[in-house]
Design brief:
The protein is of the alpha/beta class. The chain folds into 2 domains: 145 residues, 3-Layer(aba) Sandwich (Rossmann fold), CATH 3.40.50; 75 residues, Helicase, Ruva Protein, domain 3, CATH 1.10.8. The protein contains 11 helices and 7 strands. It has a 5-stranded parallel sheet, sandwiched between helices. Strands 6-7 form a two-stranded antiparallel ribbon. A hairpin with a 2-residue loop joins β6 and β7. α1 packs across α2 and α8 runs parallel beside α10. The longest helix has 28 residues. The termini are far apart.
């Protein structure tokens, strides 16, 4: 079961925009399905025969240049340093515009923002994804002014979440079967985040979350919340390390 289920309109819209050479920022909380959307857009771009560069984690300008150099290797053959490389990459992009996907954006220094702006007008489509767990993250990301268009990825509807949960359960060996009440509890814990469903179902294989065949949903909820918090703190620390450099 694809985690972009229920996001078909988002995929179609974003794919059309980046294939038209636009720069778009998508944002939403951890696990809401941004990477799954990016995966499907990458498939669409490939099917369209366009070059595709992708950075899995985006912190510095080197992440961007590496992603582009992977699909425009001819630019690297001529460059003697990073500045020349970026210049040759810009020329290569203008000759054969592709799509650049920057996932998990954490930081955007002056050099990174300047390089992205220098690529505007070349025909390159840029899709940037950022995790926004709190309102302050939203303000920080939008203040970077990296894109002319923005798209928030909201929590997924319950109907689609239930189908994703069912598919995940089929591929796991749980100690006990889930009741309808258990399923409702799991969906409340996931809170419309498809990425959290896989985490939740994986944890259910442990006896820690069961007692006499009964699901201990409050313990599960606590552990999932802790895991999300740790992932968020990890991103905050990564940003702090980058800013200290």
């Amino acid at each position: 079961m694809s985690e972009f289920l229920g996001r078909e309109d988002v995929v179609d819209s974003l794919a059309g925009q980046v294939l038209a050479g636009q720069t778009v920022l998508v944002y939403g909380p951890l696990g809401v399905g941004k990477t799954a959307i990016l995966d499907e857009i990458a498939r669409v771009v490939g099917a369209a025969g366009r070059r595709l560069g992708r950075a899995v984690h985006t912190q510095t300008i080197r992440d961007v240049t590496r992603a582009l150099q992977a699909v425009y290797p001819e630019a690297g053959l001529r460059a003697r340093n990073q500045r020349q490389l970026r210049g040759y990459l810009s020329l290569a992009v203008e000759e054969d515009p592709g799509v650049l996907i920057l996932d998990h954006l954490q930081c955007a220094g002056t050099a990174l923002k300047g390089f992205l702006r220098s690529l505007e007008g070349t025909g390159l489509g840029v899709l940037i994804a950022a995790d926004v767990e709190h309102q302050r993250d939203n303000a920080r990301i939008r203040a970077m002014r990296l894109a002319h268009r923005e798209r928030q990825v909201p929590p997924l509807q319950a109907l689609h979440m239930d189908r994703i949960l069912e598919a995940r359960v089929l591929h796991r060996r749980l100690p006990y079967p889930l009741t309808e009440a258990d399923r409702s509890s799991l969906l409340r814990i996931a809170a419309g985040r498809p990425g959290v469903v896989g985490m939740v179902v994986g944890l259910l294989e442990s006896d820690r979350y069961w007692r006499d065949g009964r699901l201990l949903s409050e313990i599960l909820r606590s552990d999932v919340s802790m895991a999300i918090a740790e992932a968020y703190v990890g991103e905050v620390n990564a940003r702090a390390r980058h800013l200290e450099k």
